[in-house]
């Protein structure tokens, strides 16, 4: 099975200058836990709901009215390709302890995201079990 068979398709990204309040509203409105961040036509980071809480709300002197995606995002992007075998992507998620991975095509354009939830619907029990154990381990 290929990544493209199980991923969420048609994912958008936001600018690093997007207000955190807008990110939170997007997450709530789309019922998602992360949003990729792009600049100059390339992915530069990811903001998760946990990033907003831990890097934002829980930090000293955080002003939610002024904060942007750049202030709370995790820089750097790990991704997989849409034509990768699902097992390869899952092992990549395990190794990096990631719950979600952006998916790119041959032209290096983001075409979706694969999440543990997506994997849970399609992967074998053993593959899923190992992935959940690794990803959920305390970092």
TrEMBL record:
<dbReference type="Pfam" id="PF00571">
    <property type="entry name" value="CBS"/>
</dbReference>
<dbReference type="InterPro" id="IPR046342">
    <property type="entry name" value="CBS_dom_sf"/>
</dbReference>
<feature type="domain" description="CBS">
    <location>
        <begin position="73"/>
        <end position="130"/>
    </location>
</feature>
<keyword id="KW-0129">CBS domain</keyword>
<dbReference type="InterPro" id="IPR051257">
    <property type="entry name" value="Diverse_CBS-Domain"/>
</dbReference>
<dbReference type="InterPro" id="IPR000644">
    <property type="entry name" value="CBS_dom"/>
</dbReference>
<feature type="domain" description="CBS">
    <location>
        <begin position="7"/>
        <end position="64"/>
    </location>
</feature>
<protein>
    <submittedName>
        <fullName>CBS domain-containing protein</fullName>
    </submittedName>
</protein>
């Amino acid at each position: 099975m290929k990544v493209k068979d199980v991923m969420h398709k048609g994912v958008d990204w936001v600018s690093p200058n997007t207000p955190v309040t807008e990110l939170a509203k997007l997450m709530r409105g789309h019922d998602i836990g992360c949003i990729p961040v792009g600049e100059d036509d390339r992915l530069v980071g990811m903001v998760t709901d946990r990033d907003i809480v831990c890097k934002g709300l829980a930090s000293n002197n955080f002003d939610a009215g002024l904060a942007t995606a750049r202030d709370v995002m995790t820089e750097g992007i790990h991704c997989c390709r849409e034509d990768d075998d699902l097992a390869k992507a899952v092992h990549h998620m395990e190794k990096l302890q990631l719950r979600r991975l952006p998916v790119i095509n041959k032209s290096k354009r983001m075409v979706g995201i694969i999440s543990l939830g997506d994997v849970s619907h399609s992967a074998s029990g053993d593959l899923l079990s190992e992935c959940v154990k690794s990803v959920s381990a305390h970092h």
